[in-house]
## 1
Amino acid sequence: MSNAGPRDLYQDVILRHSRTPRHAGTPERYAATAKGDNPMCGDRVQVFLSYSADGRIIDPRFDARGCAISIASADLMAEAVDGLAPDEARQVFEGFQIMARTGACPDGNARTELLRPLAGVHEYPGRVKCATLPWHALMAALAGERQATSE
Amino acid sequence: MNHLAPAALDVARIRQDFPILSQTVRGKPLVFLDSAASAQKPRAVIDAMVTAMETQYANIHRGLHWMSERTTEAYEATRDDAARLLNAADRAEIVFVRNSTEAINLVAHSYGRGVLRPGQAVLISAMEHHSNIVPWHMLRDAHGIELRIAPISDAGELDLDAFERLLEDGKVGLVSITQMSNVLGTYTPAERIVRIAHAYGAKVLFDGSQAIVHRRIDVQALDCDFYVFTGHKLYGPTGIGVLWARRELLEQMPPFLGGGDMISSVSYERSTWAAVPHKFEAGTPAILEGIALGAAIRYVEALGYDAIAAHEQALTEHALARLSVIEGLTIIGRAQDRGGVVSFTLNGAHAHDIATLLDRSGIAVRAGHHCAEPLMRRLGIDSTARASFAAYTLPSEIDALADALLRVREFFG
């Protein structure tokens, strides 16, 4: 913590999103929802989706209990996929998975770029699941399932 | 802070026995406070495994040659070590298994289905590890056994009155309970548990995975019926553990796994079982690990349980004193009789984040639900960070933890 500093993982933007997430909370109305559980650590997240008339994700919300990484990731995810078609959101997730594993942002996708503050998680193999848990819940909700299957 | 270390245990010298403790992590000296998950290994254990592989190794219990006979002797000597460690009346009461989990599964399967009858109950506590919950769920679903849970207080102590009430109808055939909680550090009142359970005709199994690391166990004095522990928490290798049970119970119980080494004779039509303990030891066992477990037991005995227990007590008191003054930190579990496992939460910081930040300082703790989800729910929390101590733990390492936690609190504050 002292010399190297924990900021490679806990950038200010991560801390901000985890302390005061902008997209947290259960909406009154939603079209789809799915839960993600990490049975290894007890983290839980539920994602709520609404769709526009042309099938785009609108104002996604989440309810999470977990660490700073999982909550910040859920909040950044909500920002990244807002307004996207489901297939576009899936593409962003593919890019994010590579980023979480390698630290590099694979494509020029501006939405994936929004997730770059989480790239430091690749240095912490035990924490990658914290960052991807909300995404698995999102993928399940997009598929019309209620529960994310574990990785 | 050295005055807190009991004179009886020369921790500086003990640390020289553990090669890994001289490693650095992220450029800092390793502060290993995760021994309750698995302890580090002394040179004696490492050497026992290497020496066996280099000089004296073959399959056991079957070869009519020198190497096999010597290896069998070394492996079987650990059975004597384990019998002595537990003060078992008979070395044949020591059954080698992979770990505590397998030992409890063996009892659940063999005693549970072979001796307990549908309609009877098994009683556990609200602070069990999953390994002492899930096998009983499986037995309940397969065999019609009721599972009862003895409640605990908010401080993390067994409610003995409620425990007794759950036994009163005489349906409980077996109490299976931890002797020391891996989350709360609570020691359960083992002697009283046995006395009460026996009064209602129930047998008692103790999960000694944590307790045996810190306290001398005498199964005859305890008067319990089953005792299980795992080698890797007792400074031994992974893959080897012990089930102790009274001989008459083992005789009563059908085998768990079938195969080589556990039979008396086999024809295409039927098999007859070997005598205990071999009836329960199918297949080639963890030979090297078994041999090295003997070295671990002898190492612990040489340190001496009085000194080990005093050291653990001093470390625990030191940790509680240092941690409880940290603002926003809550110690989970405040039992009167508790040992060197200290769980805590910190306002504004999730256990994972605490563990990651501590790791940056070279400090290893466990974070999560500690394989005790029902207990977490009972306590109304999702996870804790947990520091746990061993014979090689220094008071200064607890100071390092406390100092680092102050920085964690600042970081997330």
Note: The mean pLDDT of chain A is 90.
## 2
Amino acid sequence: MQSPADIFQETIDMIDGKTPPVETLIYSSYTALPAFQSVLSQTMLPRRICMRAGNGHRVSVIAENRRIVKIAEVHPSGLWENDQAPHTVTCSADDPGYIHPLASALSKIAESGDIRITRTLLADPLKGAGKGYPASMLSDYLKKEQVSEHNPDPVTGFYDAFPELARATFGKQTHVDVPATSAIDPEWLHKKAEAVRETLTDRPGELRLLTLSGERPLVVALVWFKESGCIVATHDQDRFDALQGRIETLRHLL
Amino acid sequence: MSSDIRRKIQSAIDTLRNTVTGCEIAMLVDRDTGLVLSKSNTGTVPQDYLDRLVSQAQDMLDDSLPEGFCEPHEKDATLCIYRYGAKKMTAVVTSGNPAGDIVVCEFAERPEQSGILTATEALFELTCEDKAA
């Protein structure tokens, strides 16, 4: 994090012309998305903001009042994962249907590295723009996009996160993995996984946490997505927070 | 249910909703019939929304306990099931008490497990007292 003194010095340097304006700085993969969000959140008057990678891939949006009111361009077209052309969609917080493909395109461009972000005046009057996607809304979707990229299969990701606990994966085939020191009976866990699978086959996603408090406490976490799921079980109540925290991160997939 | 016990149960339900972080709706429900015995909520909640919540809670108990999830455990243990939605989460709490009632809550944010258990324990004691009377 920059100190106030550094920020002050940068501003003075910029005014003196010693560094280029913030919009034309080159960003790495890690800093490009926060920089884009920062530029968006500082844009009050109508401006065109373009994020361009070193390989020529780019996304341009029209922003006003800290909102994306129009998507001007997505290049190449393969970056846009929607049937409707990007420049024809209406950006409105009430209809968030197009913010996911926009966040996805921005994330893919950011991965390319050598990112330049430019903010320019509009050549043409603003026409046909919606109410817009607020900067905070875009931030939420970019976070989701990054979580999805790092955890492409939520069931496997959840299962792999707890190798020391009794666990079972199920879908086409049930597999049980119980450490020798665990108090969970493998046969019991296998039966439960099979029974739960049967109740979930018609559901796209399900996240549950079950706790049984008593002399022998039991905590069972259940994750189910796209016809496959897993159960992680433990007799250790201290694991509750860890299991709950991991489940929380998967909520946005529901 | 005597009016004194009814008041105590209502007070306990209100306490649950007020003390557990993020709790927006709390209900004491007869597990078998789905009848809402007592409820506490913020703002106005339509009856059909409460009915859907109860129905969902009963499904949660049925789905989560195929062949008895708590087989190897003592009967008086408290079972708490959390179902996570994209925006809200539902918790169903039941225990092996003879009254057979369940507590159904809806949360806007992740609740503290200990807070739920403490509040529901007090509630279940009252329902047992009521049934005994």
Note: Helices of chain B lie at 3-19, 47-64, 113-132.
